[in-house]
Amino acid sequence: MKTRLCELLGVDYPIIQGGMAWIATAELAAAVSNGGGFGIIAAGNAPADVVRAQIQKAKSLTDKPFGVNVMMMSPFVSEVMQVIIEEKPAAVATGAGNPGKYISSLKEAGIKVMPVVASVAMAKKMEKDGADAVIAEGTEAGGHIGELTTMVLVPQIADAVSIPVIAAGGIADSRGAVAAFALGADGIQVGTRFICSTECIVHDNYKQAVLKSKDRDAVVTGRSTGAPVRALKNKLTREYDRLEKEGASFEEIEALGVGGLRRAFEEGDVQTGSLMAGQAAAMVTKVEPCADIIKSYFNGAETVIGIITSKLK
Predict the structure, then answer these.
(1) Which listed residue, of 6, 86, 161, 166, carries a Cα 20 to 30 Å from 216's Cα?
(2) Rounded CA gap, 170 and 149, in Å?
(3) In terms of pTM, does the model score above 0.90?
(4) Are the C-beta atoms of residues 76 and 48 closer than 8 Å to each other?
(5) 259 burial class (0-12, 13-18, 19+ CB within 10 angstroms)?
(6) Are 109 and 67 in contact, with CB atoms under 8 Å apart?
(7) Which letter does DSSP use for residue 147 in this model?
(8) Residue 142 phi/psi, 5° resolution?
(9) DSSP state, 40?
């Protein structure tokens, strides 16, 4: 299946891997790229030297194109952007802020720019500022989220911009992929499903938590701070909920989450760790190699289209 996104990124399948902090390491990004998709390393809040090491490691694991996700809230964002310009991955995806002031220098270095957007206005601004594509991420996604669902966000953005649109949030299988393309997307971004990939180096407890999750287990915390986050419910999310209901300060709520991702990723702490995952978690049923996961999204698409056709008769 070839779309404008395949041409833009030089990949076999129009699928990119989500830039999940701690989870999206060089190992996962390389495996996704080797499988025909577009792998992404998550810079998160890591300093520039760590990001450089991850990029160089990915280069040693694949000769396929891959990218880096940069969180604009990171205290090291300027240094990380400079490393990216020097190391020249194929593309940069950005989140949690406006990358406008970096777009021209990234493009001058031959690096494609794909900001994550949660509104039509932001998508139009990113196109005007020179972005090569936008990632329209619905509230079903894991991690930092917006308010609109994928179902309503993607078609509105697809109608508003001329650059490729990548649908993200809640896309767990080939049915979701077909729906995304029907909504006007040129590709899909998948995060949660890749947590349960063979090559993902997250602690097995984290993977098992995803596999055991039910339909209402991916909950949102932090709405009162203006920075809502979706993760699997556990002792940590319940404590967040308690603090917010009691009207705790921004500082108290933020302090609660410090080190949460590391505890979940490295230590396998599924109670006080932050198990960031989207609503699609409940649809993940097994651990598979990245290449098989990627193929499942597109090999099953013809079957889905056939089912839709039969229902219309």
Answers:
(1) 166
(2) 9
(3) yes
(4) yes
(5) middle
(6) no
(7) S
(8) -90, 165
(9) E
Q: Residue 289 is which amino acid?
A: P
For tokens 């509230």, name the residue.
139
Six-digit token pair at 241?
């909920």
The Cα–Cα gap between 266 and 248 comes to 29
Which amino acid is residue 63, in one-letter code?
A: D
User: Tens digit of pLDDT per residue, the chain (313 long)?
Assistant: 789 999 999 999 999 999 998 899 999 999 999 999 999 999 988 999 999 999 999 999 999 999 999 998 889 999 999 999 999 999 999 988 888 889 999 999 999 999 999 999 999 999 999 999 999 999 999 988 889 999 999 999 999 999 999 999 999 999 999 999 999 999 999 999 999 999 999 999 999 999 999 999 999 998 887 888 999 999 999 998 998 888 888 888 888 878 888 899 999 999 999 999 999 999 999 999 999 999 999 986 666 666 656 666 6
